[in-house]
Recover the amino acids of this structure.
């Protein structure tokens, strides 16, 4: 109650509330839950009533010692106003930010593989996943919510919770999932041989990859037509994409 009644002079209100709540429970016990049961299951204890009221008053005066550990109501109101004043990035801008990061990850992967003279589907897919993870998780975690593409587009990714790394990681996996299924289909297709079971497995996972891409693209398109404001990966990652107007 001290969180709401901040002034010491409000201790009487806290005492009355504590007394009222305690009285409610004592009457509940004395009346056998207001007649539901045949007889009272506990007695009406005045000592409990007084000690509960006293505990409420003492808690009211000692509460500031613990309230320093949580944000004040004024701070929460200021944060709410700050977030409400920040304009969310458009749906298309959020999508374009991801597409640019994917293109950049592909370019960097091909460059690194070319320099290191690595080749093959497995190396390509592992390299792409690693580079995309760095671009979409490590970079924004270290760069105050910016990816390379979001910086170019003046978009800042703001986690709704304190654990920014967890939010960026969930966002990455929701984006990378169709790429992962496609990568598995490519890798397993190299070892299909003449085994019928393996061939059926490759066909099945290839079908799943196509279905996954169809679902993702269809979902994004439908939500865009319906004028949704948040893409699925930002919603899953609990991330707000806001316009960084100050850096324009």
């Amino acid at each position: 109650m001290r969180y709401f009644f901040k002034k010491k002079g409000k201790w009487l209100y806290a005492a009355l509330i504590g007394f009222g709540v305690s009285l409610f429970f004592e009457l509940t016990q004395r009346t056998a839950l207001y007649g539901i049961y045949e007889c009272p299951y506990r007695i009406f204890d005045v000592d409990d009533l007084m000690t509960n009221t006293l505990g409420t008053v003492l808690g009211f005066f000692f509460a500031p010692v613990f309230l320093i550990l949580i944000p004040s109501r004024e701070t929460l109101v200021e944060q709410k106003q700050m977030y409400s004043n920040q304009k969310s990035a458009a749906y298309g801008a959020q999508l374009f930010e991801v597409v640019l990061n994917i293109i950049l990850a592909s370019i960097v992967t091909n460059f690194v593989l070319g320099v290191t003279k690595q080749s093959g589907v497995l190396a390509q897919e592992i390299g792409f996943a690693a580079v995309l993870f760095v671009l979409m998780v490590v970079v924004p975690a270290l760069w105050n919510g910016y990816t390379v593409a979001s910086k170019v587009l003046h978009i800042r990714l703001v986690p709704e919770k304190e654990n920014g790394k967890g939010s960026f990681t969930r966002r990455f996996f929701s984006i990378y999932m169709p790429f992962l299924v496609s990568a598995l289909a490519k890798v397993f297709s190299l070892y299909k041989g003449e085994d019928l079971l393996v061939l059926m497995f490759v066909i099945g996972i290839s079908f799943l990859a196509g279905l996954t891409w169809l679902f993702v693209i269809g979902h994004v398109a439908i939500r865009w037509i319906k004028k949704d404001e948040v893409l699925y990966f930002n919603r899953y990652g609990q991330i707000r994409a806001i316009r960084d107007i100050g850096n324009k």
Notes: Residues 196-225 form the longest helix (30 residues). The two ends are 45 Å apart (CA to CA).
